[in-house]
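Anyone opening a protein record will find just a pair of labelled lines. A complete record is shown below as an example:
=====
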Amino acid sequence: MKQLFLLSTLLLTPLLAVQAADPLPTKPMIGRLAASKVLFLGNSITLHGPAPSIGWTGNWGMAASSEGNDYVHLVTADITKAAGSKPETMVRNIADFERGHDKFDIAGEYKAELAFQADQIIVAIGENVPIWRQTRRERRMRLRLRNS
C-alpha cells in the first residue's frame, strides 16, 4: 500500500504543480478570430480632430456626444467584453484615401498602419467618395428618361 501511495504521489505531484503555476498568456480571441490588435480606418465618423470653423471641438468620431460614445470606442468595448481583454487599437482617418483612392499611395502613406500588423481591420468609408463618371450608356439612358 505504501508503494501505491508513493507511486500516486510521484505521478500526481508534477501535474498539480503545472496546474498551480500561472497559465501562459493567451492571445485574446473572439471565437476563432484573433483580437489582440485592431485597426480602425475611416473618415470623420472614425476620427476627426477639432475643427472650430464647423463647430466641432472633439478629437474622436464625429457626431458622437463624447469620445466614449463614438463607434470606435463602442466597438472596442464590445471586443473587450467578448475577448476577455482590451485589444491594442490604432485609429486613423483615411478620408484622403477615400476621396482620391485611384491615385493614392497606400504603401507610402500608411506605413505605420501596415507595420501595426492588426489581427482585425475595421473600415468605415464611402460617404466622401466622388461620384463615379457615368458611362456613355448611362448618360444616354438619363437623357432618354428626361426627354420622355
Notes: The CA atoms of residues 15 and 66 lie 50 Å apart. The radius of gyration is 27 Å. The chain has six helices and five strands.
